[in-house]
């Protein structure tokens, strides 16, 4: 028996997954959101955890409509396997998979990770044998529980062996290129996720396999800007600072609800570009303002339309609503200044389980304010997503997160605005 086969016999004796509990509601809503999306013919699918999820892959490769993102922040290898049919049923042309860092970070063994990856590979080969599968190495990352450079490399070795023994499966070794993640803020702000420069390097490596060149400039290292933010928000700002804008674009700014909606797919338009941020419920006006700064910094081009969904944290907190309204008004002034000819469409806030009186009051103010601003329209999604008593419709919203049917309702309403 081959050494590789012996290793995999051991996998079935390994302990079960230690699922991270904290962000399960978030992960569930992201997984569910994919069930409402029909993928394009010959899709190129990026699958994984937050390191995949954070990036705007379609934009980075020139706005090709075939490219879709199926990364999920916090995702574990077993969850990716369980949700694979949401994208695999469409028989994609190519799948780029990176998974495992969260498993190691929650004390899941290398063998258990590769067991799940092996099962996923078998599923792909069974359901879509012509799909070209690319198994990408786990990136270097800061130590956390079982995750060390040693366990990452050990897992990568087994992933490589799996690829070498599977038809239509290629191993891509990203690990050496990204060792600077651990001590160079040009690559990462948290020793785990990537800046725009990091994604530029990643895109350059996989470009021959994708069959497209990236739009990132050669001097991305020098040009990227984090808008004065830290962690995931700062890194997301770096992509926005470098990804190009065209005059027929529709930019969608806002919080987690925006970030985790695949709006270009929902609206069948690659000119719809996601500028949302956040991995947990909510988001603030101040954060959206920083992303507006990052997006327009150093660019002459301006979009035709800006969509806006923000203030969730501000309204759900205990801030004086008059102050919140003033902050929102200042954000609108900022947007009008950087994109004076763009039509702005502000979405009202969604209903929640426990704070609807303040949300209704804020939404009412927003609708009244729009009457004083000729470049501002308001789209009332609160009413669309609520029951008669004003609480969230459970078909659309669960645990304050928008699900697939809810995203469809919002996307259809947005489509009527153009």
Mean pLDDT comes to: 94
Gyration radius from CA atoms, angstroms: 22 Å
- β-strand percent reads 5-15%
In DSSP terms, counting alpha (H) and pi (I) runs of 4 or more, how many helices?
Answer: 20
Looking at the overall shape, the CATH architecture of the largest domain is 3-Layer(aba) Sandwich
User: Which strand order does the major sheet show?
Assistant: 2-1-3-4-5
CATH class of the largest domain: Alpha Beta
Count of discrete domains: 2
Q: In CATH terms, what is the fold-level topology of the largest domain?
A: Rossmann fold
Biggest sheet, in brief? 5 strands, parallel
What is the rounded distance between the termini?
A: 62 Å
Structural class estimated from helices and strands: alpha/beta
Detail the poorly predicted runs: 1-20
Tertiary shape: globular
Q: For this structure, what is the CATH homologous superfamily of the largest domain?
A: SGNH hydrolase
